[in-house]
Give the backbone structure.
Amino acid sequence: NCRMCLVDVEKFNKPLPACATQVADGMKVSTTSKMATEAQQSVMEFLLINHPLDCPICDQGGECELQDTAVAFGSGQTRYKEEKRVVFNKNIGPLISTDMTRCIQCTRCVRFLQEVGGMMELGMVGRGEHSEITAYVDR
C-alpha cells in the first residue's frame, strides 16, 4: 500500500509493487535499476509530504524506521512547498494510542489489525488530501 516496494519487472513499462505482484516462472525483477530507484525516491518524497521534518527533536529520532528508510531511499530534497496538513489525534479506544501528526498513511496499522489481529476496526477514509486513517465507525 505504501508503494516503497516498487520494482522494475522485465517486459513491463512501469514499476510494479513487489508486495502485490504475482510471481511467475522466468520473471526478472530488479530492485536497483534506474526506474526502480527513481520510483522509490518519488514515493518516499510523497510519503514525507505531510510528515514533520523534526527528527533531531523527535522522541523516536535515531530509532525510527521511517527515518532509516528516508535516508536509504530518499533523495534528500523535496519539490513540495505547500503547507503541511494537520491531522488531529483521535480517540480510537483505550488500547490504541495515536499520534496522527506522524502518520504517513502507509496503512501498516490497518493491515496489521486485519492480518494479525483479525479485526476490521481501522481503515482509510476520504481521498487525496482529505484521506485519513480512522475507526470505521467514525465515517
In short: The chain has two domains: 1-81, 85-139. The beta strands are 6-9, 16-17, 29-30, 122-125, 132-135. The chain has a mean pLDDT of 87. The two ends are 21 Å apart (CA to CA).
